[in-house]
Amino acid sequence: MKLLPIILVIALAAGGCVSKSQARLEAQNAFLSGQNAALQSQLPTASGGVTVLGAVQNQSVPWVEGMTLAQAVATANYIGLHEPKQIILTRQGESAVLEPKVLLSGAVVPLEPGDVIEVR
Predict the structure, then answer these.
(1) Is the pTM above the cut of 0.85?
(2) CA proximity to 63, closest of 91, 26, 87, 21
(3) What's the domain range around 33?
(4) Which of 43, 57, 69, 77 is most buried as measured by Cβ atoms within 10 A of its Cβ?
C-alpha cells in the first residue's frame, strides 16, 4: 500500500498538472475542432459535388465538367409520385426558380461545383 502514493506522485509529475483554465481551453478547442469537422462533412466534396434535395434517391451527385441541371436531376434519380412543380437552383447563396417545362423543352442550364438543386 505504501507504493501506491509514490506511483501516483510519479504519474502526476510525469504527466504534468493542468490548470482549470488550461483544461477548459483544451476542451473548448476539442469541441470547436469537432464542430468544424461536422460542418466540413456537410459541404460539397473537394471534387465539387452537386446536392439535389427533394424526392430523389441520390442527394449527392459528383460534378463533372459540362454537367447540366437535367443531367444532375436524372443522376439523382427523381422518385416523386408526381411531376415536379418547381426546381430551385441555388448558387453561392443566390436562388433562381425554374419551371420544369423549361428543362423538358430542351433548355440547357449549366451547373457549377457546389450548386444546390431543390426539386419540389
Answers:
(1) no
(2) 91
(3) 3-42
(4) 69
